[in-house]
Design brief:
By secondary structure, this protein is an alpha/beta fold. The protein has two domains: 51 residues, no CATH class; 178 residues, Alpha-Beta Barrel (D-amino Acid Aminotransferase, Chain A, domain 2). It is 29% helix and 30% strand. The strands form two sheets. Strands 3, 4, 5, 6, 7, 8, 9, 10 and 11 form a nine-stranded mixed β-sheet that branches. A two-stranded antiparallel ribbon has the order 1-2. The two termini are 27 Å apart.
Length: 238
Amino acid sequence: MYKDEILTAAASEILSRNDLTEARMRLTVTRGSSQQDPLHGLRLSPTTFLTATTFETYPDEYYERGMTVIVLDDQKLNPYDIQAGHKTLNYFSRLSALRDATQRGAGEALWFNVHNYLQSGSISNIFIVKDGILITPPTREDLFDPVIAEKVPYPKSATLPGITRQVIFELAATEKTPIQRSAITVNQLLEADEAFLTNSIMGIMPLARVERSAIGSDKPGPITRRLAELYEHQLTAG
């Protein structure tokens, strides 16, 4: 792997050469090549590459009215799969789910695990709000904490530790908004006061409807709006 300063220089160069001021960048690391080392056995030399594309935002109406999502019935995430909890290049099932969501007039598809507990969207993390408390499914790393693990009815997670998800934790701390990393059933989702999705492209996306069922007041809630305001301020200040 390359040091941070080398990756930073590469990012600056790719943006400059392509005249991009706002871009979606992706760092990918593959297995690369391998060779036998007499002292250490098989040694891998990973291949690292960086790509950049024009940044395309979501429609303003999604943020104003809230997004509609679907629930996947015919696919489940398997937390016991060796790839669970890792971000890989295997997007076939997730892109298929997004296509189904689009065909049904929705913007995301929600995934549950084989135990029927909510894990994430196809390309996003999810938070719900109930009685002023933020609740989000735990990641594999979260379940290493015995306090969290004791309250979760499944031993392994397929939830990814998104970057924007971590920012939400930091923003909530500044607002003294409590957060729980715990299991979420479909009933808890439908009975939530608010809900929102996160990733580095959408930022904080209000979730207003699960198919035909409204979440809370069927519009972005106060905690969602406040966190979105703080998030946008942080981006602007940065």
